[in-house]
TrEMBL record, chains A, B:
Transmembrane segments: none annotated. Pfam families: SnoaL_3. InterPro entries: NTF2-like_dom_sf (IPR032710), SnoaL-like (IPR037401). It comes from the Bacteria. The lineage of its organism: Bacteria, Pseudomonadati, Pseudomonadota, Alphaproteobacteria, Rhodospirillales. Residues 12-120 form the SnoaL-like domain. Residues 124-144 are annotated as: Disordered. This is SnoaL-like domain-containing protein. It comes from Azospirillum baldaniorum.
Length: 144, 144
């Protein structure tokens, strides 16, 4: 007997792991394969503006993976939300001493879960110090 | 004759506008109604860690909308990507002098497009100066 949500959850988590493996391993062909071919594709790298379309997104990853300063990136606390044929993985990205948070949207294309959108952004404070967001803007200076 | 993608696109854009109207109008009941009831719900406010679950997310919005320092937020350059019963709106958020970029995930629930996930993060440089992201991390100091 198959349990569809569990199967999907595991497949999405595996795709998310493959994304971070390609990232840290600077494996551009693997990264290229992970992104959807026909569905809409977009990406927001931390601090950067929105990239639309497979060509712009994949080309940005080529630059990121080529960068000599590119750090290793480790994902932790992955959590999957399933919405039928799409799924979101939210996770923390450990990049050197910094923690980022990421939204990874996967969509089913030809029966496979492929990346459709990625946004990562900085966390301003250690999670343990965060109780409630008192304001829309992050703590002083982050935007300037 | 109905054009399903056009209808969906307009409905999603209307839901996205309603989100920013509730935000700027500090209309908590409207904000509350926009978020999905049964589907998974999550949110990443700029600089903050990941919030999971309707209660945590909606309660964070109550705090944001209550804040006396809460600025007006205007969305521009909205772009919709449709994935069947889910849709992503990517847009820029103008918050005072700052520009943020946002991922707004909508999912169809009881025939209505409702918010399922939101992530907003700062843009470090004016878009016109951005050619390619040379590194994973935003320009100096943003994370510290």
């Amino acid at each position: 007997m198959t349990d569809r949500p569990t199967t999907d959850r595991n497949a999405v988590l595996a795709a998310n792991r493959a994304f971070y493996q390609a990232f840290t391993g600077r494996d551009f062909p693997a990264m290229d394969r992970l992104w959807a071919s026909r569905l809409p594709v977009s990406c927001i790298h931390p601090g950067w503006t929105i990239l639309f379309g497979r060509e712009a997104v994949v080309s940005s990853w080529q630059d990121v993976l080529r960068s000599p300063r590119g750090p290793a990136v480790q994902a932790r606390n992955e959590r999957v939300s399933l919405y039928g044929d799409t799924a979101v993985v939210l996770c923390e990205e450990i990049v050197g001493d910094a923690v980022l948070v990421a939204t990874n949207l996967f969509a089913r294309e030809d029966g496979e879960w492929r990346l459709a959108h990625h946004q990562a952004g900085p966390v301003a404070e250690p999670a343990s110090q965060i109780l409630t967001p008192p304001d829309r803007l992050p703590p002083g200076g982050l935007l300037h």
